[in-house]
Design goal:
The chain has 616 residues and is α/β, with parallel strands linked by helices. It contains 20 helices and 19 strands. The longest helix is centred in the first third of the chain and has 42 residues, at 2-43.
């Protein structure tokens, strides 16, 4: 009996010692886990407020580690956590420990808060309950949740794992079977890398469909035969800068892109929101085609990927080569007329005082002939008249040079057209504006509104542009529409429309996304990278047409430069001076006409003389 009692006593002592050793080992392991937790708290972004979920007696070890490391924290019961997740919107790091079978088997997703970071410590009790780690993946794959797995007896490190959402290839929904990903390792309380809360984004959709609504808007989207399309009609052959950006995103996500036609009022995008129903009910993942951030919080936005300026454009035309413009150009000719008059009067006075009888009319006549180079001066009979003639001949040479230079420049050098550089230049000019009545009051500016009230009405961008050409007016349009229109209307490689250097305003284009779509985060990230790299701008230029934009710049420079219309030599062609030959031909014809009249008059006079002689 005594032996039996001793045997049981020794067994109880050994069991007690064994429990003490196990608890001590567990405590040592947990202290190591706590060190890893402290490192995670220190490295977490923005050093968030730590909330320790009071879920058992072992919480004291976590609290001791926090206090020892001087990390600010608060403790909270599970029940209070459900209330706090609605009230606390700050950046929070929640620490949750699961160290018994009850916690492991009753784990639910409602303990996870969407905008918080979570660290869950899994102890060896979980292993004893035979709970598969994948059980947690069903609830946390889309949230910022990281697990610290307590090291085994034969291990000297802790694994840090998390779960990433995956797509089921057959159903194209979130997969129910998710494997944990080993993202970091903690050895003796030291992390091997800084990977703690990686972004939970699905980057491989395994060729699942990506439904995109396509709205025609130049140059973002071109739709073939758009007048025959109906809402949500599948389309093929659409192209444009937005389509190319969407294809890049679809390829990055490994999805199969499917495009559907969506009607949108391009002229006034603020009045047509019907297509948003297709986004809200899940029929479409995104809509592209030059959209704006004007739909509130109903949808998500891709971020700015393109900017377009609203600009004033106006019709221009070089002054035509006419005789009237030539006379206006030779605006200093009156000086020579003044000198010519003075010379004639002085010559007449000198001749009068010298006793030389000179006719004033003849003096003016011969002086004008000399000035034009078609007659000689009157004979000088005194030194005074010789000096006067010498100075007058010098002036005649200058006049010939002046007229020749003006004529040469008039026939070879083209002056630039009338240009406007600023918004105020347009509004202060006498040009009439042609604007769409439904959309012209988009700017809350008193001076602009007063100017817009005086404008004539036109229905569309296209009609407004055509109208300013025929009426020499001005209108507002988007920068993207300007290049093609300028190239289409250019004459002899010179622009007939120009734009101001000032912009009325700048509009920012963003694609719209379905709010609940899993693709949004990656979509926004890819579009922002493309924009920063300049690829969005390049695709926009390609859609407009690189050659069109280059030629547009060329015709603008041609219209604005005040240079020679020829490249070298600049010969004056017969067509440019054909008026002189017309004048000469008219003169010859008049001379012949006068000659005929004179001959007829002489012949008639001779007949009268002969008749008179015969009678006598």
């Amino acid at each position: 009996m005594l032996l039996i009692i001793c045997f049981f006593g020794i067994s109880l002592v050994q069991a007690s010692i064994s429990d003490v050793l196990v608890n001590q080992r567990r405590h040592e392991h947990f202290m190591t886990d706590s060190k890893c937790l402290v490192e995670i708290c220190k490295k977490s972004l923005f050093t968030p407020q730590v909330v320790v979920v009071d879920n058992g007696a072992r919480t004291n070890d976590i609290i001791s580690s926090m206090q020892g490391s001087q990390i600010p924290y608060i403790t909270m019961k599970i029940n209070a956590l459900y209330i706090a997740k609605e009230a606390i919107k700050d950046h929070i790091l929640a620490v949750i420990q699961i160290d018994d079978c009850t916690d492991a088997t009753s784990f639910k997703s409602d303990i996870i808060i969407e905008h918080w970071l979570h660290v869950i410590i899994l102890t060896d009790f979980v292993k004893e309950c035979e709970v598969n780690l994948q059980k947690f993946g069903e609830f946390v794959d889309r949230y910022d949740v990281t697990f610290i797995i307590e090291r085994a007896a034969d291990e000297d490190y802790n694994k840090i794992v998390t779960f990433f959402p995956e797509i089921d290839e057959k159903t194209c929904n979130l997969s129910k079977t998710i494997t944990p990903n080993h993202i970091n390792t903690c050895v003796s309380g030291k992390l091997k890398n800084n990977e703690l809360f990686p972004l939970k984004r699905i980057k491989n959709y395994k060729k699942c469909p990506f439904h995109v609504g396509i709205s025609p808007m130049y140059p973002f989207v071109f739709v073939p035969q758009k007048d025959r399309q109906r809402d949500m009609t599948p389309i093929a052959g659409a192209h444009g800068s937005d389509v190319e950006i969407t294809k890049i995103v679809a390829e990055y996500l490994n999805t199969t892109i499917k495009m559907y036609y969506i009607f949108k009022d391009v002229k006034n995008p603020f009045i047509d929101f019907q297509f948003l129903l297709f986004i809200a009910n899940g029929s479409l993942d995104a809509c592209v085609g030059g959209y704006y951030r004007i739909y509130g919080s109903i949808v998500e936005y891709s971020g700015i990927y393109n900017r377009q300026a609203v600009i004033w454009i106006y019709a221009v035309e070089r002054p035509a080569r006419t005789w009237q413009n030539l006379i206006r150009k030779i605006n200093g000719i009156y000086l020579f007329v003044v000198f010519y008059t003075c010379y004639s009067v002085v010559w007449f006075i000198i001749s009068y005082f010298d006793g030389d009888k000179s006719n004033l009319a003849n003096t003016f006549f011969f002086s004008l002939g000399s000035l034009l180079g078609c007659a000689s001066l009157q004979e000088a009979r005194s030194d005074k008249q010789k000096i006067l003639n010498f100075c007058y001949l010098i002036m005649c040479l200058h006049l010939a040079a002046y007229v020749n230079i003006q004529l040469y420049s008039f026939l070879t050098i083209q002056s630039p057209p009338e240009t406007f550089h600023t918004i105020y230049d347009i509004m202060n000019s006498d040009r009439r504006a042609y604007l769409n009545n439904r959309t012209k009051y988009f700017l809350d500016d008193t001076k602009y509104i007063d100017y817009a009230k005086k404008s004539a009405e036109c229905s569309t961008f296209e009609t407004c542009q055509e109208t300013i050409l025929t009426n020499n007016g001005v209108t507002l349009t988007l920068d993207g529409y300007f290049f093609a229109f300028q190239m289409k209307t250019a004459v002899n490689y010179e622009a007939r429309v120009l734009k101001t250097s000032d912009n009325m305003m700048t509009v920012y284009h963003e694609m719209i996304l379905r709010k609940s779509s899993l693709k949004n985060a990656v979509f926004v990230d890819v579009v922002s990278r493309l924009y920063e790299a300049g690829i969005c701008d390049q695709l926009f230029k390609v859609a407009v047409g690189l050659t069109v934009e280059d030629k547009s710049s060329s015709v603008t420079n041609n219209a604005l430069r005040n240079g020679y219309s020829c490249e070298e030599g600049c010969p004056i062609t017969l067509s440019q001076v054909v008026g002189v030959f017309y004048l000469w031909a008219i003169g010859v014809a008049l001379s012949c006409f006068v000659l005929i009249i004179e001959l007829y008059s002489v012949e008639k006079t001779e007949m009268k003389v002969e008749t008179f002689t015969f009678l006598h």
